[in-house]
Amino acid sequence: MNAILKTIVSVLLVSITPIAYASTTFIQNDSISQKAKYLSKKANEIRHKYPDSSLVLFQKSYEELLKSGDTIEAVKALMSKADIFENNANYSKSYDAYWNALMLTDNLDNKTIKSLIYHRLGRVYSYYKREDEALKYLNKALEIQKELVKKEVVNKSFLVPYYYFITSTNRELGNVEIAKKYLDSCYMFLPKDDTGFNRESIDFEKVFVLSEMQQPEKALEIALQILPHFEKNNRPYLVLIYKQIGDIHLKMDNLNEGELYYNKALGISKEYNSHIDFTPLVYEKLTELFLKKNNYPKAFENLKIAKELDRKFFDSRSSNNQSLLEIKDSYRLEKQRQEQQIQKQYLKQLEQEEKIGNLQRIILLVSVIFIAIIAFVYVKHLRAKHKAEKELIRKNQELENKKTQELLELKNKELAASALQLIEKDEFLRTLKDKVRGKDERIKVHEVNKVLRSISVSNNQNWEEFKLRFVDVNKDFYNKVFEKYPNLSQGDQKICALIKLNFSSKEMARLLGISVESVHTSRHRIRKKMDLPRSVNLEDFINSL
Predict the structure, then answer these.
(1) 446 Cβ partners below 8 Å, 6+ apart?
(2) Which of 114, 207, 424, 536 has its CB surrounded by the most CB atoms within 10 Å?
(3) If we measure between CA atoms, which residue out of 169, 168, 122 comes closest to residue 141?
(4) Does the predicted TM-score (pTM) go above 0.70?
(5) In whole angstroms, what separates CA 170 from the centre of its chain?
């Protein structure tokens, strides 16, 4: 395993984003219970000397954090466990811890921590040369960071660690040229103030690339320049530094210097229980070194140790790693199962929605039909009601007209009777007048004149009374005649009224006190004023008004 990654992860946990790791203890949230905080702090203090005890403490801290509902800090505790498993070459348990952490982040909107888990899964795959899977997860992590940069959540310098992870993976897989390209990207985005990610880690990767590109002198020069930084700030990381310096001396045939640095690397690994998985490579290099020295017993001894450690850490017969050699990608399988379950639920939901939709359409159709029937019945009822009302109104009008007509006829009969009475009265008065005039001279003349004047006035009053009653009964007729023929004289109007009452010419003459010829003359004058042709009967015309 490439142990340089351990320092990178430590730096990342300190500075990657405001919502990422504040320190290698993974503890920064004030809301975390005091017990969980204490357990995580204690676990970090003893992680190098007593890794097994540290794992127990991190597990207890993880459980406490889950109880308190602090999922982010629980994920960090799991990743600390995974990191310890990695340092001790227990990749199967490391993978399981990363997988559990990734499952916990499914419902979290924290892309930064998810990208870090992706990158660690990629590293685990790379240890067993699973190049496709390794680069897939590493590129996933890089793409998340690029998206955050694009959205201006973080600046471009946060891409540096992720370019570095792909650089080291390609270098370990033998893709030196690709590794060099990604290394150039690291330097391109590395900030001048060196915040967020230290230059020494990138320079150390450059030492590997230069060494692979047959530039040992330059590689050694850079390695010695950055050595004090790690001796002061990250001593467990010296396993990698010393091993790489030993490799450079071996290439340059500085065998004694090489042996010195290899032994230093083994000593640091033993002292800090760090990068144990890297020790087989150190023993392999010591084997090569002793072969160059022609010290075959030492070479055989180191080779034996290297093979034993290699079987322990990487052989399929190792109880720690047997399951990992057949990594089934539990996360992916679980996600596929979840997606299939979601799809089934979605299909059921669609079917249910379709059933509900069909039921709603049926209900709507039935409702529309029902409303249409009710509307039809209601309209039909309204029409029948209106028809009945119209029929009732028509009958009432007919009845009213009939009553009016009967009343009119009754009034006219009364008028006719009244008129006849007037005629008889006038006849009586005329007879009386004739008799008075035929009396002898003993009757006083002034008394006779007085009676005659009284009779004449009474005749006029009788006509006026008749006119008022006639107009009251035949108001429409009278108004029509007066409006249509305003040039009719009062005498003409009398004739028209009597014609309306079906009086004969003789009766008119007697009532009006004129001759029948005068009545005929009046009728002829009325026809002319009304401009009636000879073919139109005067009585019919007047009765039609």
Answers:
(1) none
(2) 207
(3) 122
(4) no
(5) 46
